[in-house]
Amino acid sequence: MSTNSLTVTDNRTGKAYELPITDGTIRAMDLRQIRTDAEDFGLMAYDPAFMNTAACRSAITYIDGDRGILRYRGYPIEQLAEQASFLEVAYLLCEGELPTQAQLDKWVHEVTYHTYVHKNIIKFLEGFRYDAHPMGMLLGAVGALSTFYPEAKDIQDPANRYIQRVRLVAKLPTIAAFIFRQARGLPYEFPRNDLGYIANFVNMTFRIGEQFNDNPVLQRALEILLILHADHEQNCSTSAVRAVGSSHVDPFSAVSAGIAALYGPLHGGANEAVLRMLDEIGEKKHIPAFIERVKQGEGRLMGFGHRVYKSYDPRAKLIKKTAYEVFEQTGMNPKLDIALELERIALEDEYFIGRKLYPNVDFYSGLIYQAMGYPTDYFTVLFAIGRLPGWLAQWEEMLLDKEQKIARPRQIYTGADTRDFVPIRKR
Ligand code: ACO
Fold first, then answer.
1. Nearest protein CA to atom 22 of ligand 1, as residue
2. Are 213 and 203 in contact (CB under 8 A)?
3. Could you tell me how far CA 382 lies from the centroid of its own chain?
4. pTM to 2 decimal places
5. How far is the CA of 352 from the centre of ligand 1 (A)?
6. Mean pLDDT for the stretch of residues 136-142
7. 275-302 as b/e: b if 16+ CB within 10 A
8. pLDDT tens across 192-203, in order?
């Protein structure tokens, strides 16, 4: 008998089965052979919220949640945040290797020359209500992009996939900036090819006439935040992109599903929730009472806890450092004091220690975005710009994976047994 296997005895029948173990997993489909009789469907694994189920093999991002390690394609996040540009990281995630200078130049050129969007996009952005949430606008606009590029449906053609990838990376900041200006009633600022990816985005969001604060420290801080968000293996929004993409829909629609997933307060919406929480706390003296309420189960300490990290989120460490660099330029944000004190108290509290709850990527990012001048409801849009390369890399990997099929989980039916229809007059 091979030692790399699991022997399971079905006590209902007394039969034993040997299930191979590969890469620390057993195949859920191997359980199907375990049946009580020929009529039996076979054993399934029940795993709500995928707490212990690997749904794919992936060579993109490595996380060790216990040791606080995050690597893209093997490169530590700390080195990428320190030395790489966002477009370099995007290339790395999507193509698998760091680009040579020539490859990077070509990639940057292509992205730069696809930043314009069809002017009809402006028309439907204008159709949203004046107080529309930017994430609702973003997911709508990105989904609508598929109608401008009907050839994007041809997902089997690598060259076609590549051009849609370029388009998405190029156009998302343009759409995001238009959304920003739409909410303010400001005329749109069109993309400029003489500016880099980040500078162009900042210009499109903040320029008013000749007035534009072109601060390289803030631009690099924004770039670092985007790099830190670029991928995070099988998180909720990436799983949404993979699941929706597995139906072989075009990438604009799949990414739009990812944006929808990211919108939620338990995922990308958390940085927005952190700022609201800090506002609600208001002053340092209210922190102990707030922590008590959290411990009583009345709400959560937003920006704390993570499904995977059971130690300090490595991204949160880097973001905290970036926060100080930004505040040196913009002046101190008084909410930082509240956040630091909240973190200090929480990290000493048995409730948080026992549950291994540490600050996550969202705890400090909102403070930085706010200092840069982005409104709270816009933070998740910035997260989406950062996460896009990860979604695209994972989408491509899913499509090329011969083992993948349309994503379709099983269920345990808990509803009524068969019963006869009752006409309405007899109910
Ligand atoms: N504040 C207080 N208690 C918490 C928190 C929190 N932020 N997070 C988890 N807990 C508690 C739970 O109440 C639970 O306690 P119990 O065992 O007594 O019931 C225990 O810790 C485990 O929590 P789960 O909800 O089972 O953990 P899960 O892995 O499902 O949740 C999540 C992870 C959603 C991130 C959670 O920690 C949370 O809601 N955090 C706040 C929201 C947030 O910051 N989200 C951003 C995540 S990072 C990102 O998406 C980019």
1. 355
2. no
3. 11
4. 0.93
5. 10
6. 97
7. bebbeebeeeeebeebbeebeeeeeebb
8. 999 999 999 999
